[in-house]
Queue: 2 jobs
Job 1
Amino acid sequence: MVFTTGQCNLKCDYCGGSFPREKVPWEIEYDLANLKRLIEKDDEAVVAFYGGEPLLNYKKVIWILDNIKAKHFVIQTNGLLYHMLPNEYWRRFDTVLLSIDGRREITNKHRGAGVYEKVLEAAKHLRKIGFQGDVIARMTVTQDTDIYEDVSHLLSLNLFNHIHWQLDVVWSDRWRNFTEWRDNSYKPGLRRLMSLWITRIKKGKVLGIAPFKAIASQAIFGNVYNAPPCGSGVNSVSILTNGKITACPIAVSENWALLGDVKTGFKLMQRPILEPCISCPYFNYCGGRCLYAYRERYWGDSGFREVCEATKTLIKLVLASVPAIIESIDSGVISPEDLLYPPFNNTVEIIP
Ligand code: SF4
Ligand code: SF4
């Protein structure tokens, strides 16, 4: 992940907006020749632009697209500044992740008035200019989310190839009542979503629900992702604007996450996730979920386990659907390529 700035043009309530300048400066402060050398050493390199809002520094995005060779380019953006990037540059991305939380009222409540409308404008623009890559709706899930309603709403827009979500848990303040939401809203919503997904698979269409596709891919094809599933520290690193290289883009000042710098290089972590995860029967699918949450445990061990329960429910639902998916592949109703996801580490974290 390449930060182009620590600044953001929004102040979503679960994140708070820009990084403090002393932690993630708002301009790239290192020599870009070092970045070029580092990335071009790796024939398989994926460059994902990140921030803050990466398009606030669209000039550096353009410079990197023009001057650095990488196998894939990805951008995570709130979409508000889509017009800053000329169309030919948009077409160079393999994946564009647009932040949107689902229905209009849910998105605008947490991200700000008019954000939902702007994100749809950006997605429509990508369609209009003939963008052929993967457009992913990247949701942050809070206690206001109805997972069935919000994911199916985004699917119904026919603007996004995939929908992915992250629970706003453990790295933020505790919810009013997480377990109540988990048991009475999230779990039943996941079951409805799975029922929709499998019904459509049997008719030949694999809806782009990223966590379902990725966990099913891990079960059927194997080795699709690692531990942690986002790859932080093991096959993915973050290059901050001050040149520091960290395991995870959220862990910008934690010592355990510092892996090197853009000038001298970095060392990947060896098995960053240990107990209780490596003895957990769900480990092959969950991978410890999120390295940052695993290390920091803001909600303590009991809060960690409360989230595990949500993860296990999701994994059990997907695994129960595997025989029907294999049957659909075997009978030619869908192809393995329809299911396999993600095709490379496109920054979708897999486990919400
Ligand atoms: S479900 Fe919990 S304990 Fe099990 S692997 Fe995931 S994070 Fe670790
Ligand atoms: S899932 Fe967790 S460890 Fe991975 S990138 Fe996000 S915050 Fe970092």
Job 2
Amino acid sequence: MSGEKRFSGRVALVTGAAGNIGLATARRLAEDGADIVLLDIAADKLAEAKDAVATFGTRVETATCDVTDFASVDAAVARAEELLGPVALLFNNAGYQGAFTPIQDYSPEDFAKVIQIDLIGAFHVLRAVSARMVAHGFGRIVNTASMAGLQGPPNMGAYAAAKFGIVGLTQTASKDLAPHNIRVNGIAPALMGPGFMWDRQVELQAKAGTQYFSSDPEEVSKAMIGSVPMRRLGDISEIPGVVSFLMGEDSSYMTGVTLPISGGIL
Ligand SMILES: NC(=O)c1ccc[n+]([C@@H]2O[C@H](COP(=O)([O-])OP(=O)(O)OC[C@H]3O[C@@H](n4cnc5c(N)ncnc54)[C@H](O)[C@@H]3O)[C@@H](O)[C@H]2O)c1
């Protein structure tokens, strides 16, 4: 049929949808024809995100929801299905980077917060959406890990623990859900910038005062970029196509895989 796109007739749910990676990816999935549900805790940013996604002409709904609260997630997913129909595609992406502190000084409160949002929150979303996908007999899921989930960087103990958890969750979920025509993969971005996340990371690594980085943010930035085989930062725009690939049928024999998006193996 003319005008048919890769995800025409599919509903995609995106968490962390008001943030950089979530919004860019929601826009790409809408461009690929999907109807979109945008979930985020930042209610004030969701209206703007909705306008940005709606430019592609597919249906777009929003839900304010805290991924750390399972009841809030389950209610948001139920409402999304009432409004748009079965969720077929999930980008499980909400996250928080946490502090940059050596483990011996790391705040237990911040550690718990990072695990609550990045790991338990991702489980809540996976749990609520996959139960419905099993009932519908179809699903394509992409979880956002990080390069910090493939090798632990200094000063990021909570984040690394949570993101290693995401890689494990992706592998196990891929096995549990394969019999139900549901594929589960992940992405592991790193060194995305320029922008707030990059500046924050460089400044906080400099401030952490460890042997691994200079105390000068500019030197930290140079050293980090110097460790990338492609010798440059990645741009947010280099992520959505990978998610779309993992959700589409060009990756039909892939499940349980977390793909680095990092300018080469660090
Ligand atoms: N930007 C990077 O360099 C980078 C690198 C590797 C991995 N990541 C991961 O990518 C994902 C998206 O990051 P981003 O760069 O777009 O950051 P971002 O801060 O722009 O977006 C994160 C979004 O998650 C939302 N969120 C936070 N806590 C939430 C909660 N409890 N419930 C619901 N929503 C919540 C925030 O409101 C925000 O809109 C995260 O999982 C992050 O860990 C980012």
